[in-house]
Amino acid sequence: MTAKMELAPLRAWDDFCPGMDRFAKPEFGDLTKWNNRVISNLLYYQTNYFAVAVVVFLIVGFLNPLGMFLGGAVVALVFMGSVWAGENQATVKNFKRKNPTLFIIGVMAASYFLLSLCGGVMVFIFGITFPMLLILIHASLRLRNMKNRLENNIESVGLKKTPMGILMDLLDQQEEKVSKVRDFIEGKLKE
């Protein structure tokens, strides 16, 4: 059974940015736990993150439309090239799976280098990197709630597919969650 792609709902502002009691410093010593928090938040708040990124893109795009187009094109091409390399080169695929943050940093560094050759560095920093930084900070600090975990498990099992879920699949970040959910379900069925 293949799930059709659907957009995640826009989460309410008081859920997206509640009081400070729902934010906490990530556990830097436990990278797996931090990575799970970031991935869960990216999946759950993906439409909110997309809206934030679009607002920043529009502001920067209005100020420098040609630079924004060039920056977006370069980042998209570098990302597609890195995904292709990750699918066709075992060493890149292993690196991408074990070090997703370093992989994204590498994509951004390669994009930065290519844009510096074209003179589009400021557009890159403000139009592309800044929204990603805002999203990463929120996803790292926002504590998950029960609804967040339930939605992510539904997507992990394959009952629902969203754009962020597809992106996470391209970055090889869903496989561990799917196997954990399957193991949990199989364990409950055996009981």
UniProtKB/TrEMBL annotation:
Superkingdom of source: Eukaryota
Stored Pfam families: PRA1
Compartments where located: Cell membrane; Cytoplasm, Cytoskeleton; Endoplasmic reticulum membrane; Membrane
Keywords attached to this entry: Acetylation, Cell membrane, Cytoplasm, Cytoskeleton, Endoplasmic reticulum, Membrane, Transmembrane, Transmembrane helix
Membrane topology designation: Multi-pass membrane protein
Repeat listed as a keyword: no
GO terms of biological process kind: negative regulation of transport
GO (cellular component) term, any one: endoplasmic reticulum membrane
Membrane-spanning segments: 42-63, 69-87, 99-115, 121-141
Family of this protein: Belongs to the PRA1 family.
Listed PANTHER family: PRA1 FAMILY PROTEIN 3, PRA1 PROTEIN
Protein name: PRA1 family protein
Species lineage: Eukaryota, Metazoa, Chordata, Craniata, Vertebrata
